[in-house]
TrEMBL record, chains A, B:
It comes from the Bacteria. This is ArsR family transcriptional regulator. It comes from Dyella solisilvae. Gene3D superfamilies: Winged helix-like DNA-binding domain superfamily/Winged helix DNA-binding domain (1.10.10.10). PROSITE patterns: HTH_ARSR_2 (PS50987).
Length: 110, 110
DNA sequence: CATCAATTTCGATGATTAGCTAAATAGCGA
DNA sequence: TCGCTATTTAGCTAATCATCGAAATTGATG
């Protein structure tokens, strides 16, 4: 979870995630949205990959990056719950009474 | 919002916020929970203050730090909504249809 | 096989950051 | 005023980070 927070600490990476929310895009296509060099973007992708926030799919010489929303979701959820913040899943007030496949967090930080 | 994400990128600072969730504590009391020097903790407090995540109240020579939950909440909320993640307020599925006092975000990042 | 395109890896650099010790500031009580 | 306590500021170092250009990798195509 630390890796996730480190990853989203950077504005460029947050924007990459936001772009990927809609459709998965190639590394080059993503890079075109930012005023930095390809190698720099590649490094950002590596950080996001390391945090398991995105997934790479190589097709020929092209790499498609895809958002792993559940990982982002779990991190945000876990942290938020530490604070009683309503940051909830798609089902906030859990009507099942606790049959979550996500995880029950209480000290999942660090 | 960038400042908030930078602030919570550090595990020590996240833990400080978590400690502050219950009761407000003095700088020294907070410091006692970590294996680093007072000046280092003071620097962490400064970052959290800078991000407006905590508030300082000086009483004599002692400083009480208090969590500003709403700021954390807004940042988390705003970011999460960018992804359609349910990270919602205390009222997730907004039955009012959009009468929120928090803010309506759509490009609030960066 | 030679070349082109997409992307990453390498190696370097300047900026930021977390950490420390020592010193400064500020309030309080004798 | 002197000394004690709480906290921050100052000055420094080591590590991490974002960035770049050049080179390497990998796959496709003529």
């Amino acid at each position: 979870m630390n890796a996730v927070f480190k990853a989203i600490a950077d504005p460029t990476r947050r924007k990459v995630l936001a772009l990927l929310r809609q459709r998965s895009m190639t590394a080059g296509e993503l890079s075109d949205h930012f005023p930095v060099s390809r190698p720099t973007m590649s490094a950002h992708f590596a950080v996001l990959r390391e945090a398991d926030l995105i997934e790479a799919n190589k097709v020929g010489t092209t790499i498609f990056y895809q958002l792993k929303l559940s990982v982002l979701e779990d991190a945000l959820l876990g942290f938020s719950q530490l604070f009683g913040i309503g940051v909830a899943d798609h089902m906030t007030t859990d009507p099942t009474g606790g049959a979550r496949p996500k995880a029950t967090r209480e000290g999942a930080d660090e």
